[in-house]
Amino acid sequence: MMIIGLIWALLLLVVMIMMSLSILINKKTFMDREKSSPFECGFDPQNSSRMPLSMRFFIITLIFLIFDVEITLLLPLVYMPISFTSGVSISLFIVILLVGVFYEWKEGALSWVN
């Protein structure tokens, strides 16, 4: 029992030494330029967090999530043996995907300009 306590004390000492060294060695500044710049969503971290979300960003995020889920549904179909019913279901699924893409394209949601 004494050996287990000694091992724990040694581990605690090693962890404390490593954490102290990392604090002393790091070059992180409080006002790092990259950390304080706006991220992908476009929010400025210095402003209020109650700013309205851009509808354009929201729609692009939803489209990405929808098509990301659809890709995860399509990938297992590559390894599935093709029969008549599976071929019809795969074709129907792809047609639904294409109709969705063309609808989003027609509505202008996929346009990156403006």
TrEMBL record:
EC primary class: translocase
Enzyme Commission no: 7.1.1.2
Compartment(s): Membrane; Mitochondrion membrane
Catalytic reaction(s) noted: a ubiquinone + NADH + 5 H(+)(in) = a ubiquinol + NAD(+) + 4 H(+)(out)
Single GO MF descriptor: NADH dehydrogenase (ubiquinone) activity
Keyword Electron transport: yes
Spans traversing the lipid bilayer: 6-25, 57-78, 84-103
Source organism, top-level taxon: Eukaryota
Keyword field: Electron transport, Membrane, Mitochondrion, NAD, Respiratory chain, Translocase, Transmembrane, Transmembrane helix, Transport, Ubiquinone
InterPro entries referenced in this protein's UniProt entry, alphabetically: NADH_UbQ/plastoQ_OxRdtase_su3 (IPR000440), NDAH_ubi_oxred_su3_sf (IPR038430)
Pfam families: Oxidored_q4
Keyword Transmembrane helix tagged: yes
GO cellular component: mitochondrial membrane; NADH dehydrogenase complex
Recorded topology in the membrane: Multi-pass membrane protein
Family: Belongs to the complex I subunit 3 family.
Function comment: Core subunit of the mitochondrial membrane respiratory chain NADH dehydrogenase (Complex I) which catalyzes electron transfer from NADH through the respiratory chain, using ubiquinone as an electron acceptor. Essential for the catalytic activity of complex I.
Full protein name: NADH-ubiquinone oxidoreductase chain 3
Species of origin: Phallocryptus tserensodnomi
